[in-house]
């Protein structure tokens, strides 16, 4: 059985620094010990691979089909009122990933070839293929608009990054640091029944440590920092999930950690801020010139900190924003998220999703989830913004925080403040790659209000028993609407992040 799956999943070859507020200062405590499963991963990095025709058992297509088959198919999943989990086969490294999925499927797979094929990084047997790296492919967006003192760091990062991702030892260490290889893809049977349309699947990033969907990017960039000889990590943070995981990994790797948060976000997450400090992180709070203490202020302050300490500090950008090559680095590691979805959906249903949905703030979830499906015009890619932080919907072209992208600004080019109940969506700008996809018409962008987010939170809680993050809660109503639009026999995937403490009292009053 494993060999059959392995063959099925064999990939073909087809981017004023201030000290911390005194109210947040405390002595650092030792990080909490954790038991980390050890993974044995064989890394294969072929330089010139010749595409060969392989024989597979039965009628199973090669995994190149995962990224190239058309959507002219019918995929009916047996739900039987129970929660179905799609995971990788059980292995000695992952004994928990062992559930079999009852699937009834009728699949028609005609030949399909549309656009440039996506070459995946992850292989079914755990090996890693060097990713195809390209910089500056964001159309009129992107670029490097930074002080000259930061250019040396950016050039060094570009060189180290290209060398690292082609080095087998880099990916071997990367695999050992992953707390789990796959997060589950689960069938939301009750949510599907409520929509009375397409089958709804949930990519359960809430089951990552601290519930963040950025683990792949954080681990990859921390390893790059060590290769560059950097001893201190500075990162921007909105929802504390990202900061907590970064602090935890820095403790494991022996790196100093500085987490920059907007002052308002830090005050709203005091317990999480304390947890970061217990993990050894130093907290710096920031406000924008207009007085907003949100993610925009945190990114600006983190950039300033890295410029002032560019010889020893590595700036771990929380999202795919900032000057090149930072967006490309983030996207490369985050694309593993979308690859997991492609493999899991193909294993469970024999086909690919008809739509993939995620909330969009800076765009970290979007560049990860959408990237492997980008060349497939038959897969709808839908992003959901907070209605008062909708840079993709209401923004215009400008330069902010090191790159040219879409942003909320007035007629004089001054940045307008944003607002969202979710700190991760409360940003006046978006990553240049997502802006490029939007300008090309490849991704669909919708908006949601705070009330929609609270309603989505309750829907996931009441129907599936999941305490979701406020960011992914924004997209729930869009998924329900999209499922009705697509109709039965289609499949929609929603990325779900872990719950955060912000707004929990308000949410509980409505539950």
Automatic annotation (TrEMBL):
Pfam families per record: PALP (PF00291)
Name used for this protein in its record: tryptophan synthase
Catalyzed reactions per annotation: (1S,2R)-1-C-(indol-3-yl)glycerol 3-phosphate + L-serine = D-glyceraldehyde 3-phosphate + L-tryptophan + H2O
Pathway: Amino-acid biosynthesis; L-tryptophan biosynthesis; L-tryptophan from chorismate: step 5/5
Any GO CC annotation of this UniProt entry: cytoplasm
Domain of life of the native organism: Eukaryota
Molecular function GO terms recorded: tryptophan synthase activity
Signal peptide: none
Annotated keywords: Amino-acid biosynthesis, Aromatic amino acid biosynthesis, Lyase, Pyridoxal phosphate, Tryptophan biosynthesis
InterPro entries documented for this protein: Trp_synth_beta/beta-like, TrpB-like_PALP, TrpB-like_PALP_sf
Region described as Disordered: spans on this chain: 21-41
Domain Tryptophan synthase beta chain-like PALP: residue ranges: 182-498
Enzyme class: lyase
Lineage: Eukaryota, Fungi, Dikarya, Ascomycota, Pezizomycotina
């Amino acid at each position: 059985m494993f060999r059959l799956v392995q063959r099925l999943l064999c990939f073909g070859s087809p981017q004023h620094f201030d000290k911390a507020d005194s109210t947040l200062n405390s002595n650092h405590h030792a990080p909490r010990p954790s038991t980390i499963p050890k993974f044995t991963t064989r890394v294969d990095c072929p330089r010139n691979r010749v595409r060969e025709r392989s024989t597979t058992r039965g009628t199973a297509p090669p995994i190149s089909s995962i990224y190239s088959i058309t959507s002219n198919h019918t995929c009916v999943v047996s739900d039987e009122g129970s929660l179905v989990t799609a995971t990788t086969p059980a292995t000695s490294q992952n004994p928990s990933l062992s559930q079999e999925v009852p699937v009834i499927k009728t699949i028609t797979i005609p030949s399909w070839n549309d656009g440039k094929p996506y070459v995946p990084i992850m292989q079914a047997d755990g090996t890693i293929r060097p990713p195809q790296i390209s910089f500056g492919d964001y159309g009129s967006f992107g670029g490097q608009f930074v002080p000259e003192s930061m250019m040396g760091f950016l050039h060094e990062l570009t060189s180290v990054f290209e060398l690292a991702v082609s080095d087998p030892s880099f990916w071997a260490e990367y695999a050992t640091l992953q707390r789990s290889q796959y997060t589950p893809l689960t069938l939301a049977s009750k949510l599907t029944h409520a929509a009375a349309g397409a089958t709804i699947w949930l990519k359960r990033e809430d089951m990552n440590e601290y519930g963040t969907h950025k683990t792949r990017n954080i681990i990859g960039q921390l390893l790059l920092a060590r290769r560059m000889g950097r001893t201190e990590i500075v990162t921007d943070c909105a929802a504390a999930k990202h900061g907590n995981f970064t602090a935890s990994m820095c403790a494991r790797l022996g790196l100093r950690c500085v987490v920059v948060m907007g002052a308002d976000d830090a005050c709203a997450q005091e317990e999480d801020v304390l947890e970061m400090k217990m993990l050894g992180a130093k907290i710096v709070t920031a406000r924008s010139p207009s007085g907003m203490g949100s993610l925009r202020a945190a990114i600006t302050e983190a950039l300033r900190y890295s410029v002032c300490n560019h010889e020893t500090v590595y700036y771990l950008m929380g999202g795919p924003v900032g000057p090149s090559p930072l967006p490309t680095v983030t996207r490369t590691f985050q694309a593993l998220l979308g690859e997991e979805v492609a493999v899991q959906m193909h294993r469970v249903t024999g086909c690919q999703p008809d739509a993939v949905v995620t909330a969009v703030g800076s765009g970290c979830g979007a560049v990860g989830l959408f990237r492997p499906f980008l060349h497939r015009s038959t897969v709808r890619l839908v992003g959901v913004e907070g209605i008062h932080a909708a840079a993709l919907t209401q923004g215009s072209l400008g330069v902010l925080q090191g790159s040219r992208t879409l942003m909320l600004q007035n007629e004089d080019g001054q940045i307008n403040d944003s607002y969202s109940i979710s700190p991760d969506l409360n940003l006046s700008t978006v990553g240049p790659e997502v802006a490029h996809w939007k300008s090309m018409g490849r991704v669909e962008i919708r908006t949601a209000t705070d009330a929609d987010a609270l309603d989505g939170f309750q829907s996931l809680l009441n129907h599936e028993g999941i305490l979701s993050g406020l960011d992914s809660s924004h997209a729930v109503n869009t998924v329900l609407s999209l499922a009705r639009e697509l109709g039965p026999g289609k499949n929609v995937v929603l990325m779900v992040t872990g719950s955060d403490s912000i707004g929990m009292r308000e949410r509980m009053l409505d539950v």
